[in-house]
Model the fold of this input.
Amino acid sequence: FNMTVRDTVLNVQQSYYALYGVIQHIKKLESDHNSNTNQLKIAENRYTKQPTLLNKATIQQARSSLYNQLEQLAKAQGELIRNAANLAQAMGLPIGTLVQPSSSFQMHAVGSWKLDLMETIDHALLHREEIQSAMALAKSQNHLATSLNYSYIPKLSLYGYADFSNQNGIYGKEHTSKENKTWSWGPSANIGLMLSWNFDGTVSDAKARSHRYTAKQFEAKAIAAKDMVASQTAATYAEYTEAKMNLDTSKAALLNAKQARETSKLLHQKGIIDATTYATTSHSVSQASENHVKAIYEYNNAIAKLYRYTSIWPTGSSAMLDRAVQILKEG
Done:
Protein backbone atom coordinates (compact mmCIF):
# COMPACT_ATOMS: atom_id res chain seq x y z
CA PHE A 1 0.00 0.00 0.00
CA ASN A 2 2.78 2.43 0.93
CA MET A 3 4.56 1.75 -2.36
CA THR A 4 1.41 2.61 -4.31
CA VAL A 5 0.89 5.80 -2.31
CA ARG A 6 4.52 6.87 -2.72
CA ASP A 7 4.29 6.37 -6.51
CA THR A 8 1.07 8.39 -6.55
CA VAL A 9 2.65 11.23 -4.56
CA LEU A 10 5.64 11.31 -6.93
CA ASN A 11 3.39 11.27 -10.00
CA VAL A 12 1.29 14.15 -8.65
CA GLN A 13 4.41 16.17 -7.78
CA GLN A 14 5.98 15.65 -11.21
CA SER A 15 2.75 16.53 -13.02
CA TYR A 16 2.31 19.57 -10.76
CA TYR A 17 5.79 20.91 -11.43
CA ALA A 18 5.46 20.25 -15.16
CA LEU A 19 2.14 22.12 -15.30
CA TYR A 20 3.36 25.19 -13.48
CA GLY A 21 6.64 25.13 -15.38
CA VAL A 22 4.65 25.56 -18.60
CA ILE A 23 2.57 28.32 -17.00
CA GLN A 24 5.72 30.20 -16.00
CA HIS A 25 7.12 29.80 -19.51
CA ILE A 26 3.89 31.10 -21.06
CA LYS A 27 3.95 34.17 -18.81
CA LYS A 28 7.49 35.00 -19.90
CA LEU A 29 6.60 34.45 -23.57
CA GLU A 30 3.61 36.77 -23.23
CA SER A 31 5.80 39.40 -21.58
CA ASP A 32 8.37 39.17 -24.35
CA HIS A 33 5.60 39.25 -26.97
CA ASN A 34 4.19 42.47 -25.51
CA SER A 35 7.66 44.03 -25.47
CA ASN A 36 8.28 43.09 -29.10
CA THR A 37 4.83 44.36 -30.06
CA ASN A 38 5.77 47.76 -28.66
CA GLN A 39 9.03 47.63 -30.60
CA LEU A 40 7.07 46.88 -33.77
CA LYS A 41 4.88 49.95 -33.20
CA ILE A 42 8.00 52.08 -32.73
CA ALA A 43 9.49 50.67 -35.94
CA GLU A 44 6.27 51.34 -37.87
CA ASN A 45 6.15 54.94 -36.63
CA ARG A 46 9.76 55.41 -37.64
CA TYR A 47 9.06 53.99 -41.11
CA THR A 48 6.09 56.35 -41.46
CA LYS A 49 8.39 59.30 -40.82
CA GLN A 50 11.39 57.87 -42.71
CA PRO A 51 10.28 55.27 -45.32
CA THR A 52 13.75 53.85 -45.94
CA LEU A 53 14.66 50.25 -46.73
CA LEU A 54 16.48 49.97 -43.43
CA ASN A 55 13.39 50.94 -41.45
CA LYS A 56 11.27 48.61 -43.58
CA ALA A 57 13.66 45.76 -42.82
CA THR A 58 13.34 46.59 -39.12
CA ILE A 59 9.55 46.17 -39.34
CA GLN A 60 9.88 42.85 -41.16
CA GLN A 61 12.38 41.57 -38.60
CA ALA A 62 10.13 42.62 -35.72
CA ARG A 63 7.18 40.82 -37.31
CA SER A 64 9.28 37.69 -37.82
CA SER A 65 10.15 37.72 -34.11
CA LEU A 66 6.49 38.10 -33.19
CA TYR A 67 5.44 35.23 -35.46
CA ASN A 68 8.12 33.04 -33.92
CA GLN A 69 6.89 33.89 -30.41
CA LEU A 70 3.29 33.18 -31.43
CA GLU A 71 4.38 29.71 -32.57
CA GLN A 72 6.09 29.17 -29.23
CA LEU A 73 2.97 30.34 -27.39
CA ALA A 74 0.73 27.99 -29.39
CA LYS A 75 3.07 25.09 -28.64
CA ALA A 76 3.18 26.02 -24.95
CA GLN A 77 -0.63 26.22 -24.78
CA GLY A 78 -0.87 22.68 -26.13
CA GLU A 79 1.69 21.53 -23.57
CA LEU A 80 -0.34 23.29 -20.88
CA ILE A 81 -3.48 21.30 -21.76
CA ARG A 82 -1.58 18.01 -21.78
CA ASN A 83 0.02 18.69 -18.41
CA ALA A 84 -3.31 19.80 -16.92
CA ALA A 85 -4.86 16.53 -18.08
CA ASN A 86 -1.94 14.50 -16.69
CA LEU A 87 -2.24 16.18 -13.29
CA ALA A 88 -5.99 15.60 -13.22
CA GLN A 89 -5.40 11.92 -13.97
CA ALA A 90 -2.73 11.66 -11.26
CA MET A 91 -5.17 13.22 -8.78
CA GLY A 92 -7.89 10.74 -9.70
CA LEU A 93 -10.27 13.35 -11.09
CA PRO A 94 -13.02 12.36 -13.56
CA ILE A 95 -12.05 11.64 -17.17
CA GLY A 96 -11.99 14.79 -19.27
CA THR A 97 -11.24 17.05 -16.30
CA LEU A 98 -8.49 19.65 -16.56
CA VAL A 99 -6.85 21.18 -13.50
CA GLN A 100 -7.43 24.93 -13.29
CA PRO A 101 -4.12 26.52 -12.22
CA SER A 102 -3.95 29.39 -9.79
CA SER A 103 -3.27 32.73 -11.44
CA SER A 104 -1.18 33.90 -8.47
CA PHE A 105 1.23 30.95 -8.55
CA GLN A 106 4.93 31.67 -8.98
CA MET A 107 7.20 28.81 -9.97
CA HIS A 108 10.24 28.52 -7.69
CA ALA A 109 12.68 25.95 -6.37
CA VAL A 110 11.31 24.08 -3.36
CA GLY A 111 13.67 23.55 -0.45
CA SER A 112 16.83 21.49 -0.57
CA TRP A 113 18.02 17.98 0.23
CA LYS A 114 19.69 17.74 3.66
CA LEU A 115 21.37 14.31 3.46
CA ASP A 116 24.69 13.61 1.75
CA LEU A 117 25.12 10.83 -0.80
CA MET A 118 25.97 7.96 1.55
CA GLU A 119 23.33 8.96 4.10
CA THR A 120 20.77 9.05 1.29
CA ILE A 121 21.71 5.58 0.03
CA ASP A 122 21.82 4.07 3.54
CA HIS A 123 18.38 5.47 4.38
CA ALA A 124 16.96 4.08 1.13
CA LEU A 125 18.43 0.62 1.74
CA LEU A 126 17.01 0.58 5.24
CA HIS A 127 13.48 1.78 4.48
CA ARG A 128 12.53 0.85 0.90
CA GLU A 129 9.43 -1.33 0.94
CA GLU A 130 10.64 -3.47 -1.98
CA ILE A 131 13.56 -4.72 0.11
CA GLN A 132 11.57 -5.11 3.32
CA SER A 133 8.79 -7.01 1.52
CA ALA A 134 11.18 -9.48 -0.14
CA MET A 135 13.06 -10.10 3.12
CA ALA A 136 9.82 -10.58 5.08
CA LEU A 137 8.53 -13.09 2.51
CA ALA A 138 11.84 -14.99 2.60
CA LYS A 139 11.67 -15.16 6.39
CA SER A 140 8.07 -16.36 6.25
CA GLN A 141 8.93 -19.15 3.79
CA ASN A 142 11.84 -20.29 5.98
CA HIS A 143 9.53 -20.44 9.00
CA LEU A 144 7.03 -22.55 7.08
CA ALA A 145 9.80 -24.90 5.96
CA THR A 146 11.08 -25.27 9.53
CA SER A 147 7.57 -26.01 10.79
CA LEU A 148 7.10 -28.73 8.17
CA ASN A 149 10.47 -30.28 9.03
CA TYR A 150 9.56 -30.42 12.70
CA SER A 151 6.26 -32.11 11.85
CA TYR A 152 8.06 -34.82 9.85
CA ILE A 153 10.90 -35.86 12.18
CA PRO A 154 10.27 -38.36 15.05
CA LYS A 155 9.26 -36.83 18.36
CA LEU A 156 10.56 -38.03 21.75
CA SER A 157 8.35 -36.97 24.65
CA LEU A 158 8.95 -37.14 28.40
CA TYR A 159 5.86 -37.43 30.54
CA GLY A 160 5.16 -37.83 34.28
CA TYR A 161 2.27 -38.19 36.72
CA ALA A 162 1.95 -37.83 40.51
CA ASP A 163 -0.92 -37.77 43.05
CA PHE A 164 -1.71 -38.11 46.75
CA SER A 165 -4.74 -39.90 48.31
CA ASN A 166 -6.21 -40.06 51.82
CA GLN A 167 -9.36 -42.21 52.37
CA ASN A 168 -11.28 -43.26 55.55
CA GLY A 169 -14.28 -45.60 55.74
CA ILE A 170 -15.89 -47.73 53.12
CA TYR A 171 -16.31 -45.98 49.79
CA GLY A 172 -19.97 -45.44 48.89
CA LYS A 173 -21.50 -46.53 52.20
CA GLU A 174 -23.69 -44.25 54.32
CA HIS A 175 -23.02 -46.05 57.63
CA THR A 176 -19.83 -47.63 58.77
CA SER A 177 -18.79 -49.43 61.87
CA LYS A 178 -15.58 -49.77 63.66
CA GLU A 179 -15.19 -53.40 62.59
CA ASN A 180 -15.39 -52.72 58.83
CA LYS A 181 -13.74 -49.35 58.85
CA THR A 182 -10.82 -49.10 56.40
CA TRP A 183 -8.43 -46.40 55.53
CA SER A 184 -5.69 -45.71 52.97
CA TRP A 185 -3.08 -43.03 52.68
CA GLY A 186 -0.08 -42.31 50.50
CA PRO A 187 1.37 -40.78 47.32
CA SER A 188 1.75 -42.38 43.86
CA ALA A 189 3.74 -41.36 40.77
CA ASN A 190 4.98 -42.62 37.40
CA ILE A 191 7.33 -41.29 34.70
CA GLY A 192 8.12 -42.42 31.19
CA LEU A 193 9.31 -41.71 27.61
CA MET A 194 7.13 -41.73 24.50
CA LEU A 195 8.37 -41.92 20.90
CA SER A 196 6.04 -40.93 18.04
CA TRP A 197 6.57 -40.50 14.29
CA ASN A 198 3.97 -39.28 11.86
CA PHE A 199 5.27 -40.78 8.62
CA ASP A 200 3.58 -39.21 5.58
CA GLY A 201 5.71 -40.59 2.80
CA THR A 202 8.11 -37.55 2.80
CA VAL A 203 5.30 -35.20 1.69
CA SER A 204 6.14 -32.68 4.45
CA ASP A 205 9.82 -32.90 3.59
CA ALA A 206 9.07 -32.12 -0.06
CA LYS A 207 6.91 -29.17 0.92
CA ALA A 208 9.66 -27.91 3.22
CA ARG A 209 12.20 -28.09 0.40
CA SER A 210 9.82 -26.14 -1.83
CA HIS A 211 9.44 -23.41 0.79
CA ARG A 212 13.24 -23.26 1.22
CA TYR A 213 13.64 -22.77 -2.51
CA THR A 214 10.99 -20.04 -2.54
CA ALA A 215 12.76 -18.35 0.38
CA LYS A 216 16.01 -18.31 -1.61
CA GLN A 217 14.16 -16.72 -4.52
CA PHE A 218 12.88 -13.95 -2.28
CA GLU A 219 16.36 -13.50 -0.77
CA ALA A 220 17.77 -13.12 -4.28
CA LYS A 221 14.99 -10.67 -5.06
CA ALA A 222 15.90 -8.66 -1.95
CA ILE A 223 19.56 -8.55 -3.03
CA ALA A 224 18.55 -7.41 -6.53
CA ALA A 225 16.27 -4.78 -4.98
CA LYS A 226 19.14 -3.48 -2.86
CA ASP A 227 21.33 -3.13 -5.96
CA MET A 228 18.52 -1.39 -7.82
CA VAL A 229 17.74 0.95 -4.93
CA ALA A 230 21.40 1.90 -4.42
CA SER A 231 21.88 2.61 -8.14
CA GLN A 232 18.56 4.46 -8.45
CA THR A 233 19.22 6.61 -5.39
CA ALA A 234 22.79 7.46 -6.41
CA ALA A 235 21.68 8.41 -9.93
CA THR A 236 18.89 10.62 -8.58
CA TYR A 237 21.29 12.29 -6.15
CA ALA A 238 23.57 13.05 -9.11
CA GLU A 239 20.56 14.53 -10.94
CA TYR A 240 19.84 16.70 -7.90
CA THR A 241 23.46 17.92 -7.71
CA GLU A 242 23.50 18.74 -11.42
CA ALA A 243 20.09 20.42 -11.26
CA LYS A 244 21.22 22.53 -8.32
CA MET A 245 24.19 23.86 -10.30
CA ASN A 246 22.06 24.38 -13.43
CA LEU A 247 19.55 26.33 -11.36
CA ASP A 248 22.13 28.93 -10.36
CA THR A 249 23.67 29.03 -13.84
CA SER A 250 20.36 29.44 -15.66
CA LYS A 251 19.28 32.19 -13.28
CA ALA A 252 22.49 34.14 -13.95
CA ALA A 253 22.14 33.52 -17.70
CA LEU A 254 18.56 34.83 -17.69
CA LEU A 255 19.56 37.98 -15.83
CA ASN A 256 22.42 38.58 -18.24
CA ALA A 257 20.16 38.02 -21.29
CA LYS A 258 17.64 40.56 -19.98
CA GLN A 259 20.38 43.13 -19.42
CA ALA A 260 21.72 42.48 -22.93
CA ARG A 261 18.25 42.94 -24.40
CA GLU A 262 17.78 46.30 -22.66
CA THR A 263 21.17 47.45 -23.91
CA SER A 264 20.37 46.32 -27.44
CA LYS A 265 17.01 48.06 -27.23
CA LEU A 266 18.64 51.38 -26.46
CA LEU A 267 21.26 50.90 -29.19
CA HIS A 268 18.57 49.94 -31.70
CA GLN A 269 16.49 53.00 -30.85
CA LYS A 270 19.53 55.16 -31.50
CA GLY A 271 20.20 53.40 -34.80
CA ILE A 272 23.58 52.05 -33.71
CA ILE A 273 22.62 48.39 -34.31
CA ASP A 274 20.22 46.87 -36.82
CA ALA A 275 16.97 45.02 -36.18
CA THR A 276 18.55 41.60 -36.67
CA THR A 277 20.96 42.14 -33.80
CA TYR A 278 18.17 43.31 -31.53
CA ALA A 279 15.96 40.37 -32.53
CA THR A 280 18.80 37.99 -31.71
CA THR A 281 19.16 39.39 -28.18
CA SER A 282 15.38 39.24 -27.70
CA HIS A 283 15.34 35.61 -28.76
CA SER A 284 18.17 34.93 -26.32
CA VAL A 285 15.94 36.11 -23.48
CA SER A 286 13.19 33.68 -24.51
CA GLN A 287 15.69 30.85 -24.69
CA ALA A 288 17.26 31.75 -21.35
CA SER A 289 13.81 31.98 -19.77
CA GLU A 290 12.88 28.54 -21.09
CA ASN A 291 16.16 27.10 -19.80
CA HIS A 292 15.58 28.61 -16.35
CA VAL A 293 12.06 27.21 -16.11
CA LYS A 294 13.41 23.82 -17.18
CA ALA A 295 16.14 24.05 -14.54
CA ILE A 296 13.55 24.77 -11.83
CA TYR A 297 11.46 21.82 -12.95
CA GLU A 298 14.45 19.46 -13.00
CA TYR A 299 15.52 20.65 -9.54
CA ASN A 300 12.07 20.18 -8.00
CA ASN A 301 11.63 16.88 -9.83
CA ALA A 302 14.97 15.59 -8.49
CA ILE A 303 13.97 16.42 -4.91
CA ALA A 304 10.59 14.72 -5.37
CA LYS A 305 12.33 11.59 -6.68
CA LEU A 306 14.77 11.60 -3.74
CA TYR A 307 11.83 11.60 -1.33
CA ARG A 308 10.28 8.70 -3.21
CA TYR A 309 13.42 6.61 -3.61
CA THR A 310 14.47 7.00 0.05
CA SER A 311 10.94 6.26 1.36
CA ILE A 312 10.72 9.62 3.12
CA TRP A 313 7.32 11.27 3.08
CA PRO A 314 7.30 14.89 1.82
CA THR A 315 6.17 17.45 4.37
CA GLY A 316 2.49 16.98 5.20
CA SER A 317 2.07 13.75 3.20
CA SER A 318 2.35 11.42 6.20
CA ALA A 319 -0.52 13.09 8.09
CA MET A 320 -2.76 12.97 5.00
CA LEU A 321 -1.88 9.30 4.50
CA ASP A 322 -2.85 8.50 8.10
CA ARG A 323 -6.22 10.18 7.59
CA ALA A 324 -6.77 8.28 4.31
CA VAL A 325 -5.93 4.95 5.96
CA GLN A 326 -8.35 5.72 8.80
CA ILE A 327 -11.12 6.50 6.31
CA LEU A 328 -10.45 3.20 4.52
CA LYS A 329 -10.63 1.31 7.81
CA GLU A 330 -13.92 2.93 8.74
CA GLY A 331 -15.22 2.43 5.37
The longest helix spans residues 203-269. The chain has a mean pLDDT of 80.
